[in-house]
Amino acid sequence: MSSNIHRKLIVLGITLLVSACGGNGVAPSNAFNASETSVQGSKAESSGAAPTDTTSILKLLTKDVTIGSTVDSTNGDMGPRAVTIVQYNYGKLKKGQVLVCNFEDSSGNAGNGTTIEQFDPVASSKPTTFFQNSKIEGCDGDTIDAGDQVYASGFTSKVMVSINQNGKLKKTFGSPITQPLGNGEGPMLYSYSPELVFVGNADTGGVDSFSFGYNTGGIEGIDGFDVNKGSGWSALGPSGLAYWCGQHGKPSCPYSHHIPDTLYVADGACNAVVAIDHASVLLLKDEITIQPGCKKFTCEYATHTCATLVKAGSPLDKPVAATLLPNGNLIVANTGNNTLVEMTPKGQVLDTKVVDKSKKPGIFGLAAIGTTDGNTALFYTDINTNTLHELEQ
Fold first, then answer.
1. Is the residue at 11 inside a domain?
2. What is the value of pTM for the model shown?
3. Which segments of 56-179 are extended strands (E)?
4. How many domains does the chain have?
5. Are the CB atoms for 130 and 91 separated by under 8 Å?
6. Is residue 32, in this structure, part of any structural domain at all?
7. What is the pLDDT of residues 210-242, one digit of tens each?
8. In the β-sheet with 363-369, what is the strand arrangement from edge to edge?
């Protein structure tokens, strides 16, 4: 059976299931959204990107506050890499707290860190160990869903795990992951749709997507991103993942079958940011192929989902992390020069800011908070000082 027929049968089967349930049945969001996008056609495509706002938020973030040291108090792990923000009070987690992955062990060996630190978002906060386990060795990605379930990935352990709100290991996820390089979460798009978690793959140059809900599973729907096959901190590939679903400043997307969604991917190996429109509809392996250089793309089902180039080249310099601001614009972290770059979804550069003047790569984690231009702030990690910072207005 051809992949095209396979995809059409999946979409048809899910559409019939939802119709039989009066439109409110439990069905995988990926398949249902494929049907919705097909109906909307070019209108859906044109509305898939975040709105354009040329207000520079980075220029307003003039105060740099050190939240605290990320060195783990129990085993000395350090090398803060990924950052995520807690959305609700649940278990050990409190709304507004920050979770940080450690990539190094106490001796500074890259790829040996096994801890996630938990911070209160105030200056001079003392971290506590939220989670420690060899399953996340080389922790390079942590993200959190609307239920405060944490997903963490390990560069060295080569898996992703789910962790409950009390810091207990729940499940381990392998294939199609072969060497994760950062991850990002996609909230529910409508009632009963699953959460999505996207994982960059340093080995294959793919982006793996995992659906958690009615039909839990993972696929590598995107492949071909440039990778450098580097080790430790030098590894570059599709690592900066940021997901837009129609609004920001809220912990979940507005519930609707017609929500446009876009996954932004920063790749330090090709110095580019690429947008994947309607990333939630990816169903089959290798639906989108990124050509060498990350500027051209082959899309198997372009009416459902495809890729576009947002920005390539200067001022990007080995970008490894990305986050979306409440107004829909992107902040990307360069490790080549420790500079933050703010741009619109169309690639217009609005501002740049150097946050570490040393020549050694240091900025590997980013996360934005806020609901408006006036209350936006930005967390970042610096491995040269083993600290978590907040840029404030």
1. no
2. 0.86
3. 63-69, 78-85, 98-104, 115-119, 128-132, 139-144, 150-154, 159-163, 169-173
4. 1
5. no
6. no
7. 988 655 679 999 999 999 999 999 999 999 999
8. 63-69, 387-392, 377-382, 363-369
